[in-house]
Specification:
Layout lengths: L2 H8 L13 H26 L6 H15 L6
Length: 76
């Protein structure tokens, strides 16, 4: 054991890594992400309860195929 590691090992709580505190920008991003996720969850829950119009599946399949084709992925 070297002198540096011996000094660290003898310190109480030496096995714990130093705690990094988030900056204001990081806290802002975390709160913004939380708000967006909460809004998306509410929207998905609302849409899950909404009645489905006939023919919606075909329209959705077409939109998905066009989106995949736009990025170069051929649909099945």
């Amino acid at each position: 054991m070297t002198a540096i590691s011996a000094a660290l090992a003898s310190h109480p709580g030496a096995h714990l890594a130093p705690r990094a505190l988030p900056t204001r920008a990081e806290r802002l991003l975390l709160s913004l992400t939380h708000a967006v996720e909460a809004a998306m969850i509410r929207r998905l829950q609302r849409r899950a309860c909404a009645p489905v119009a006939p023919g919606t599946d075909a329209v959705e399949d077409r939109r998905t195929a066009q989106a995949l084709g736009a990025v170069g992925i051929l649909p099945r």
